[in-house]
Amino acid sequence: MVSCEEGEIQCYCLANEGTPDCTDTYRKDSSPLCINPLAGDSCGAKSCADLGKQCPIGWTCNQTDDEQYECGCAEGLVTNSNTCLDPYSSQYCGVTQETISTDLSCDSKELCNGTECQCAQGLEKCGGDACVDVLSDNKNCGKCGNECDEYATCQNGTCVCNDGYSRCDTERCADNIKCQESDYNQHCGAKGSANDPDEKSDNWWGIQCAENEKCKLVEGTYQCICPEKWLMFDEVCTNPDTSIQHCGATKDYNGINCRVNGYETQCMVGNCVCSGGLTFVAIYEDNGVQKYTDRSNEIKEASKKRRCSL
Fold this sequence. Notes:
It is a single chain. The protein is built from two helices and 23 strands. It folds into four domains: about 1-70, no CATH class; about 85-120, no CATH class; about 160-220, no CATH class; about 230-310, no CATH class. The chain is about 5% helix and about 30% strand. The radius of gyration is 47 Å and the shape is rod-shaped. It has helices spanning about 175-180, 295-300, and strands spanning about 10, 35, 60-65, 70, 80, 85, 110, 115-120, 125, 130-135, 150-155, 160, 165, 175, 215-220, 220-225, 230-235, 235-240, 265-270, 270-275, 280-285, 290-295, 305-310. By secondary structure, the chain is mainly beta.
C-alpha cells in the first residue's frame, strides 16, 4: 500500500467528492490520496475535509513563523498585488519592493544579472546606454571609439576596405585609382579589396616607390618613375638642376660633379656655383698652356680638374 510522505495528509476521499464526512472506510480498497499543505493547490490544508486554498498561478505556498500557511511569491521574487516579479528577468531587472513602479526593463541587447542590465555576451557598452557588437559596429570596431572611415566596413572587429578601395596609407581607405596615383607612392599599383582580407592577391599592397619617384600609369600599368625632367643615376631619381654630382645633366650627358676640394659649392639651375663670390671654372690645356674657363659648354668638354677661382 502506498503511504504518504511526512507532513502530507493521507486521504481516501476528499470533501468535494460528495462525502462530507470522508470516513476512513470510504475507498478503503483504493490507494490513498496524499495532500501536501505546502502545495500551491492545497495551501494550508488541515484535513481531507479542509483542503486549504488555491494559490494564484506562479505563486507558492509558504509556511510563516507562526506555522500558518500563506500564498506568496517564491523565494527571490517580489510580490506586486497578484503578480510575482522576477528581479533576474529582463522586464523587471533588479526590482525590489521599493522600485515596483519604476521601469527596469533591459534593452533588447542586454541581459539581467539580478541587480542591473548588462550587455549580452559579445557586446559592449560604448559611450552611452546602448550595447554594440564591436565585431560589426562601424563606429566601435574592435573596441569602443574605433570608427571605420566612410569607405570601410567593420568585419570581425577589423575595418576592412570596401570593394574598389584599398588602404593606401596606415589610416584610411581610398579609391583604388587614387591609390595607384602619385599621392600614394607607398602602394603603387595596389590591387587590394575587401574580398581578399587575407592579403593573398598578387600585388595586394602594390610596391613602394623609392625616394623622389612618382607612381604613374605607363603603358597600361602603374610604375614608379622619375618626375618630369629628372634623370635616373645609380637607380636614384636625380634633379639635374640641383644635383651636386650630376649638375646640368641631360639624357645623353651625366652632368658635372660640382665637388671641389676645400670649397663649398652647390648646383643651381644646372650650373655649379661657388660660395664667397668665387667662380666655378675648369682647367684645361691649350697647346701646353693651362687655361681656365667658366663657360658651361666648355666646362663639359674640359678635363676633370675643376676649382673655384676669383
